[in-house]
Amino acid sequence: MRTVGVRAHVPLNASDALARLRDGSWRTRLPGDVVSVRDAGDAEEWTVRFGRGAVRWRQREAGAEPSAVAFEQVDGDFAKLSVTWTCEPAPSTACQVNFEARFDLGVPMHDRVFEPSWPAHSPAPPAPS
Q1: Dihedral of the alpha carbons of 97, 125, 61, 91, in degrees to the nearest 10
Q2: DSSP per-residue string spanning 102-120
Q3: How many Cα atoms are found within 13 Å in the side-chain-facing hemisphere of 78?
Q4: Nearest-CA neighbor of 17 among 69, 70, 64, 83?
């Protein structure tokens, strides 16, 4: 499985940042490559641009760790997909938000083609205002 991660410092304490991740309101301000996120009852359906096409999946929250928010694909274009968000205290009143996606496209040579354009564990793009 491939792993892609992003880290960002945000001006919130770790518990407030986790609360915002859990409430999901941030999903309305996603970058242009995210075509849609739709509430599907007990799951969410995502469509994201990749190359000249798109990938789709349905995900559910996984696990009940108080210090993390995690999702797993229950149906979709990936052979496997899991996402974890964690928040760690950082200097002053900020925290570091960590995003990690683990995926398997089911065809090993396609993993390199579908990797995002940013390197693993690079700084996050600027937050939308």
Answers
A1: 10
A2: EEE-SSHHHHHHTS-SSPT
A3: 25
A4: 69
Does the predicted TM-score (pTM) go above 0.70? yes
What residues form DSSP beta bridges with 54?
49
- Mean pLDDT value of segment 79-97: 89
Q: How far apart are CA 111 and CA 8, in angstroms?
A: 25
Report the Cα 10 to chain-centroid distance in Å: 16
Scan for tokens 């986790």, then name that residue: 18
Place of tokens 């999946």: 57
Beta bridge partners of 115: none
Q: How far apart are CA 55 and CA 80, in angstroms?
A: 13
**Token pair belonging to 123:** 């700084």
pLDDT value for 28: 73
Residue 108's pLDDT band (cuts 50, 70, 90)? low
Pairing of strands 95-104, 80-89: antiparallel
Residues 15/110, Cβ–Cβ less than 8 Å? no
